[in-house]
Design a protein that fits this description.
The chain has one domain. 22% of the residues lie in helices and 27% in strands. It has 2 helices and 4 strands. It has a 4-stranded antiparallel β-sheet, with helices on one face. The longest helix has 13 residues, at 15-27. The N and C termini lie close together (10 Å).
């Protein structure tokens, strides 16, 4: 079974926190029950890439990785540099 869930993050919430919240919502689990995110991706660079910034150095694009049996895509909204979306889909085995 494959599911797909997209969430647009709140301003001021780190990308790594938004990933954990999206996976927790998709799996109906508490964030504290999830495996550590850093086992799959270093959360600090992820948070820096998607931190709210202004000017010409704003990252535009998507980072994709697998975490907790899900494929995760974190994307900056190209029309609003302070908003990102997190999409999770069940990984096929």
């Amino acid at each position: 079974m494959s599911t797909n869930n997209t969430a647009t993050g709140e301003q001021g919430v780190d990308a790594s926190s938004q990933v954990l919240e999206a996976i927790a919502a998709e799996t109906d689990r508490d964030v504290l029950e999830l495996p550590p995110l850093y086992d799959e991706i270093d959360p600090e660079p992820l948070d820096r890439l998607f931190s709210p910034t202004t000017g010409a150095n704003v990252f535009q694009g998507t980072i994709r990785f697998q975490y907790a049996d899900y494929l995760v895509a974190v994307t900056r909204d190209p029309t609003a540099t302070d908003k990102i979306s997190v999409t999770v889909a069940e990984a096929s085995n």
